[in-house]
Amino acid sequence: MASSCTQLYLQCRSFLCSKTVACTWQYCSQVRHCIAVTCVPTKILNGSFVIKGNSTATQAKQRWKQQMFCYSDLAAKHLTTQVKEDKGVEGTSTAEVVPYKSPLLPIRDALLATESQVSLDLDAAAEFSALEVISDEEAVSISVPSAIPPASTSLRDYVDQSETLSKLVQLGVNLWKLEQRPNVGSMLLRLNFNTDVAPRLLFLKEIGVEDSRFGYIITHNPFILTESLENLQSRVNYLKSKKFSSETVASMVSKAPYLLNFSVKRLDNRLGFYQQQLKLSPSSTRNIVARLPRLLCGSLEPVKENLKVCEIELGFKENEIQHIVIAVPKVLTANKRKLSQIFDFLHNIMKVPHNLIAKFPQVLNSKYLRLRERHLFLEYLGKAQYDPTLPNYISLDRLVSLPDEIFCTELALATLEDFCLFQKTL
């Protein structure tokens, strides 16, 4: 009895497995055939279907519905057949058969809501289809955004789209210099030419700055475009109150672009420093500042160091320093090493005294190589005479300022070829 029950159980299990596998394989084959016949290339984007290809939106919707109905019909048929077979096999059992309820069975009901939702999305996609034919008026009314690059390492990529940059280029501004400075490029892109740039240019024009200097000023000081007009005007008024003429103020701004970026208090402190430190009169102070306006912009530390070098290391007296500074203001900002090197050659090699150097201070601002070559050439010819009390005197001023040809013909009484040959021997 037990062996017969066991054989019956094995036969039933093999029968059920073979039926289930066959039905499943048939169902999968039918699904693949349905997909191959009705599928349309689609792409899911944000929960909606966007139809791609040459088919219209209506055809795509119909094919989609057919595909979904095919899925639901095959699923229902498969599950119904499986339940019936299960009932036939288990009919001999006294246990109650519970029908299998799959979540795929109500797909036809859910399809109605999904169809209406997707239908709206497909209509919206078809409304903005790239294949839709539009009229010429609609084509002209389409606004195309400007192709400004989101990020770049060069301002030249923005010149064609930015009115401000294009106008600055026309003024002669060197953008390649400005883009090397941090945050300057982004600052210029945020400026509006009519409201930010044009009023500052008109202000510079009103105080007497020439149009040809606009590019130089903005290239060296682009931050003048962000200064308020009230501050700029107050600084110009202060300089005029110190008896600087309008022409002098315009010249100072052209030579020192950062001049108007400093506050009135700082400008007043700088003028007071030079007047007290050098013990100059107001007119002499205005004279050196007008000729070298960057004295009001730069740091005071190099100036203080050069004054100490002239007094302690070089041994000039106070009145001699005053005379040197009034004649050559660049001495205050010159390189200390160069200043000491030229003085050492003048005083120790050429044997020129302090009072004579102070009388011709331009020699301190000359090139060391030129001074050395010309002195050695005159010494080679036996004409190195710098004492004004002796005959064949040669002025230090003419020694360093004359061109080579005039130096050879008037001072050395030789030819330019001789001087060139002598230079090769050095």
Task: Describe this protein's structure.
This protein is mainly alpha-helical and 426 residues long. It contains 21 helices and two strands. The protein has a two-stranded antiparallel sheet with strand order 1-2. A hairpin with a 2-residue loop joins strand 1 and strand 2 (48-51). Helix 1 packs antiparallel against helix 2 (57-89) and helix 2 (57-89) runs antiparallel to helix 3. Residues 15-25, 27-57 and 83-126 have low confidence and may be disordered.
How is the main sheet built?
Answer: 2 strands, antiparallel
The strands making up the biggest β-sheet line up spatially as 1-2
* Helical percentage: 55-70%
Low-confidence stretches: 15-25, 27-57, 83-126
Specify Rg, calculated over alpha carbons: 47 Å
Which series of helices and strands comes N to C? HEEHHHHHHHHHHHHHHHHHHHH
Number of helices: 21
**Structural class, please?**
mainly alpha
Global geometry: elongated
Question: Got a strand count?
Answer: 2
User: First CA to last CA: what distance?
Assistant: 130 Å
Quaternary status of these chains?
Answer: single chain
Percentage of residues in strands: under 5%
